[in-house]
Amino acid sequence: MPSSPKARSTTWRATGTRASGAAAGAISSPRARRSCRPCARYGREPVIAVSSAELATLAASHAHHYFRSQVVALENRDFGRHPRDVFWPVPGGVEIHSVFIHPLFTAAGTLQRYTRKHYANIDYGMIPRMCESAAMVKIIEQPAEAYINNFSAAARRYPTTGRPFSHADFLSEHAYSYPIQKSLFARGQRLPCRLSGWTPYRDAARDVRELMVGLMPSPPVAAD
What we know:
By secondary structure, the protein is of the alpha+beta class. The chain has helices at residues 30-35, 37-42, 52-61, 65-69, 108-111, 122-130, 167-173, 179-184, 204-215, and strands spanning 10-13, 85-90, 93-98, 102-106, 137-139, 189-192. It has one domain. 29% of the residues lie in helices and 12% in strands. The strands form two sheets. It has a three-stranded mixed β-sheet with strand order 4-1-5. Strands 2-3-6 form a three-stranded antiparallel β-sheet, covered by helices on one side. The radius of gyration is 17 Å and the shape is globular.
C-alpha cells in the first residue's frame, strides 16, 4: 500500500471488509460463529489470540451482504448502489479503497476542531470537519498493527444496482462527497487472507487511476 506522510494527527480505518484497522466482510450470524473452526478453537479461551490474516479469512468465508455486493469479481453481477468501499481480489488477499472511513484513533487537538458536529453519519461528516486535507490522515498500512472485524445480521441486504461494477455508477454516487474523502480513495490497503470463490477480472490499479480522474475534478463542497 502507498506510504503516508510522516506528520499525522488522525489515524483511521477503512470500512467494509475494512482492512488495516478494518473489518473484512464480517461473520454474519451467531450460527456461523458456532459452526466455524476458529470459533470452536478459540471459543473457550479467555483471550482470543488470532492473526489478522486468520481473522480476515474467517470473516471472508462468512461475509455479509455489504462485502459481497462490493467485490469487483466475475461472480458479483449486482454491485452495491452506495459503495463506500471497493474490494478487488488480488493474489494473497484483497485490495481495498475507501471514500468514507472511520476513525480508529484521533489526536485530542484534532478532535477539538470537531465543533460543527454531524450526528447522522460519522464516516461522512466527521473527517471534513476535523481535517483540512488528506495529509492530516494516516491510514494504517499493516493489518498486523491493527485489525478490527465488523459484524452484521445475516439477513440484512444493502441496496444494489442490478448490474456489475461500473465507473459511472461509482462516480455518480460520490458526486457530492467531500473533496478530502475523494482524495483518500487513492490510498489503498492490502488485507492478507485466503479469499476463495471470487474471480478477479479487472486491474485494481487501473480502476483506481481512472476513478480518481473522475472523482477529483468535482467543484469543492464546503463542510457545514
